[in-house]
From TrEMBL:
Lineage of producing organism: Bacteria, Bacillati, Actinomycetota, Actinomycetes, Kitasatosporales
Annotated Basic and acidic residues bias: 180-198, 569-580
Cited InterPro entries: Endonuclease_MobA/VirD2
Taxonomic source organism: Streptomyces malaysiensis
Biased composition (Low complexity): 548-566
Boundaries of every MobA/VirD2-like nuclease domain copy: 57-165
Region listing for Disordered, in residue ranges: 170-198, 538-580
Top-level taxon of origin: Bacteria
Protein name: Mobilization relaxase component
Signal peptide start-end: none
Length: 580
């Protein structure tokens, strides 16, 4: 149940005409009263002798009993209450009780408090009602509407339980402002899937991603085609900004501008500046070493650095100071935006959905201390400047590696929010994780399939030796890993690590000790990427020489691919188990 207090108005009759009218798109059906301050109030929807002017006159009557100077300039209070699409249809009596509970909670008319304001609840659809009230009480005083929005939200949560409706998570005031009904109708008329507010919020959010200065931020906004207005102090110092879509205009054919703070709480200019001003006060992140290891400026190297930064950030979110963890969570949103912007076509949709969902998880009342999150912000910047990935070869494999690490970071974020009672943020992070899970399955199919092939081509003695090593290094997980199809990709990775001069047993132990694996679909897949990341191994198996003579092309199988010949696969699995 979603209660939404609309902007206050000046004309009671104008709102009544809308509520009892056909709607802007003929969507209103059978408008009628379900409750009011007076059981005998006229209902122009069901009573042929009643008129809208009569109802308006009765609603506004307390206004006429006070001096003009004592009347509020905007005296019309308007609340809409809407159920979810999957909720059952409430009766008029139930909606009437909802209306009475809402006006009492808001402070409009609470019978226990004596004289209240006059109000009426109109239903013109199955799933919602509108409540209109005039803001002068019967005794001439004004109602106490402080925190009315929070109070009606709390009442909605109680009604959901009592009426058996979908239970929504309690908000904390840090969510981005929802589009108004007028904005949604305007977008529909113009044939746009999203409102101007939503398009602008996403564009501004992406412009912030990895930006390092005001100039870079505004250059990105201009490059995205937005109209920009800057607000400056008399001294010339920049104080704020507004943005608009070129084709979003009002009735006077003027662009409709939105201040950054009206798009999302963290998109005001002062809040944006906190990101790069804090970085300037901290020591530079050690990216020079990473550039030497993986090469600067390429899509693959940017994804390597992203995986490394995400790997380190999980520990901070799980065990660090709350304010520092909040900064890392916010910066994770930038990384997701950058990865979605530069992803290959086959993973782009899921990554964009993950970034959109995670936007809600990136803010809470825990104020972020910026600067310590520089590694993640730099990773986002590297992704943007590294350019789009083709989704094949090394950048395709490192994309899977980065998504895998980000999945665990976002899962840790969901746990962090849940522990602090941030229900909406926890749910948003969990939804983002599911999109990442799908994107990972798509991105990892080809590189893991190639590693699987290489693992199946290992000689029997070598495979037996890797099996013994696994059982010694990870006795509690070994049997689970050996039963997974991804074991062959892990065996190939262990072989590559040995060839590069590493101790694979130590790598395996470190990989398991540092991160949880309970949320992994395949433990072996996770260990493949952790070992290849830690040991600096090429993520794309096609760049490595074969470790054994290749015979006929074997059937591949990863977490997302199915073998074309099940009988042959079972035979191969039996042979492999005997070798173990």
């Amino acid at each position: 149940m979603i209660p939404r207090i609309q902007k206050r108005g000046q004309r009671t009759i104008g709102l009544l005409y809308y509520l009892y009218g056909p709607g802007k798109f003929e969507e209103h059906t059978d408008p009628h009263l379900v409750a009011s301050w007076d059981n005998n109030a006229p209902d122009p929807g069901r009573d042929p002798s009643a008129t809208l002017k009569q109802l308006r006159q009765l609603l506004d009557q307390p206004m006429e009993n006070v001096e003009q100077a004592d009347r509020p300039k905007k005296h019309v209070w308007h609340l809409s209450v809407r159920n979810a699409g999957e909720d059952r249809i409430l009766s008029d009596e139930e909606w009437g009780e909802v209306a009475r509970r809402m006006v009492a909670a808001a402070g409009i008319d609470d019978p226990e408090q004596g004289a209240g304001c006059r109000w009426a609840a109109v239903r013109h659809a199955d799933d919602h009602i509108h409540i209109v009230a005039t803001l002068v009480r019967e005794d001439g005083f004004h109602p106490d509407l402080d925190h009315d929005a929070a109070r009606v939200q709390g009442q909605a949560r109680a009604l959901e339980v009592e009426l058996g409706l979908r239970r929504l998570n309690k908000g904390d005031g840090t969510a981005a402002k929802r589009p108004t009904s007028a904005e949604r109708h305007k977008a529909k008329r113009q044939g746009r899937e999203r409102t101007a507010r939503e398009e602008l919020r996403e564009t501004v959010r992406r412009a912030v991603t990895g930006a390092a200065s005001d100039e870079e931020f505004f250059d990105r906004l201009a490059a995205a085609g937005l109209l920009i207005r800057k607000r400056a102090a008399p001294s010339g110092d920049l104080l704020g900004y507004k943005v608009a879509l070129p084709n979003d205009r009002n009735k006077d054919d003027e662009p409709v501008f939105y201040p950054g703070a009206r798009l999302a709480p963290d998109l005001s200019l002062p809040r944006i500046r906190e990101r790069w001003s804090a970085e300037a006060r901290n020591d530079p992140a050690p990216w020079q070493e990473d550039a030497a290891r993986w090469g600067p400026g390429t899509a693959a190297s940017a994804r390597r650095r992203t995986a490394s930064a995400a790997w380190q950030a999980v520990l901070i979110v799980e065990h660090g100071d709350d304010a520092v963890a909040a900064a890392h969570i916010s910066a994770t949103g930038e990384v997701l935006d950058a990865l979605a912007k530069t992803s290959a076509a086959h993973t782009r949709r899921e990554l964009r959905d993950a970034a959109t969902d995670f936007e809600r998880a990136s803010r809470s009342h825990v104020r972020a201390v910026r600067g310590h999150d520089r590694a993640l912000r730099q990773a986002a910047r590297e992704l943007v400047h590294g350019g789009p990935a083709l989704g094949r070869g090394e950048d395709g494999a490192t994309t899977a590696m980065a998504i895998d690490m980000l999945f665990f970071l976002i899962t840790a974020t969901a746990h962090w929010h849940a522990q602090k009672g941030h229900a909406q943020q926890a749910q948003a992070a969990a939804q983002a994780a599911e999109h990442l899970r799908t994107a990972y399955q798509t991105a990892s199919a080809q590189p893991l399939g190639m590693l699987y092939q290489r693992g199946r081509r290992l000689s029997r003695p070598l495979l037996q030796r890797q099996t013994v090593l696994l059982r010694e290094a990870l006795p509690e997980l070994a049997e689970q890993i050996l039963a997974e199809p991804g074991w062959y990709a892990l065996a190939a990775t262990i072989t590559d690590a040995e060839a590069a001069g590493h101790d694979p047993a130590a790598l395996l132990s470190a990989a398991v000790e540092r991160r949880e694996l309970d949320t992994a679909d395949s433990v072996s897949d996770v260990l493949v990427w952790r070992l290849r990341q830690t040991a600096d191994l090429p993520a794309d198996a096609s760049s490595l020489p074969e470790n054994s003579t290749a015979g006929s092309r074997p059937t591949t199988r990863s977490t997302t691919t199915k073998p074309s010949t099940p009988g042959r696969r079972r035979s191969e699995e039996e042979t492999s188990r005997k070798a173990r």
